[in-house]
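Input record (one chain):
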Amino acid sequence: MMVKKAAAFAVSWLALTSPALADTLLDNINGVTLDETGKVEHFTGLIFDADGKIVQLLASKDKRPKKIDYQFDGAGRFVVPGIVDSHVALMRIGYTALTGGKDGLPPPRPEDRDVALQKAQRLLAAQGITAVSDMGTTIEDWQTYRRAGDKGTLYIRIMAYAAAVDDMALIGGPGPTPWLYDDHLRFNGLYLDQITPANTGGSEATAAATQLRNRMSRAAIDNFQVAVATPNHAAADDVLDAIDELTPTYQGERRWRLENLREIDPVQTGRASADQAIVSFQFGTLERDMAAAPASAAQIQPWQSVTAAGVRAIYASATATTPSSPFLAMAMAITRENAAGEPFGGWQPQERLTREQALAAMTVNGAYAGFAEGRFGRLEKGARADFVMLDRDPMLSSPADLRGVQVVETWIGGARIYVAGQEAAQSFGKEMPGW
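The corresponding structure, as predicted from the sequence alone:
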């Protein structure tokens, strides 16, 4: 039965990516992307080729080509780059959807894993998420992604990080993989969940810090990228100390990642900037921190301080269940208010991000954090045509309207893979079976 379900959820990759020897024009849109300086660039048309790469962005004054093979009317919809969620547990999202969250079920078979992946991909695409950093990839997960890639049913772009050194070695072998399946899959390195005792001292903390260095060193020696869960000041110090110790030995662009950072002080922020580290924030969890009202409030998710110090901030949902709207998180990032608009003016309002900074964290910075710059994250010539069509402008909508943004369509690599309200979308005149 599961095999039949897998077939039902699969979508023909040939139908998606083969407009064939053709350029496609998406016209009559209100598009925004960020340029290399972080400023908003507007466009009203987008041309991409048969490989799903952008050929040209068109302004309203630009002439449209007379010879075009496929043309779509965007009906004035708002278009932004596809959202990059920089921390998810991809297969757990799929398993939750597959099982209804029930516990005590037998281990999934390969065909069950395949169905779970398809379910996870559709859930993500429905929220406008086109790429993820998968934290905790197992060898079984990796094989599932490879099967989907081989069959042409891998749509979401995956930057994978193993949770164990053994899995890292099995998946990557001598180092990170190249980009596979037209930039849909890459194994980047190692994700280390919290192994440092929170705010403790003594021999236990010393042993944990030593273990952290050993694991980071083992990954770095083969050029794997390292991401470490960093929820508190003690963890931040341990990770930054490890980076400082390893940097003289393991030089080059490492892009160390501090994951799901909750608290960081100005000294630690300066160290992260000097190390050219990347920090992921869970914008959506701020409401919980606001309710706790800790004494160190000024150091709780200090988004603007971190960004102003030159640290690249990236968006992370850290979800292992049903994905929520990233635009809810974006509203929190720019207001630091809850859904009721409280506290008025924002909690620690000096740490609000601008809309441009929030969009960067959710697109181009997320791509950079996974060694994907130039491939996706920004709509520009030569990049993949990964974008989302929305029912309102996220750069101008009020915070309340921003929380209500609806995804109308999601395109990845020039293929329309999700249309709201449809189980079978239309791509280049061919019906795609529903997921």
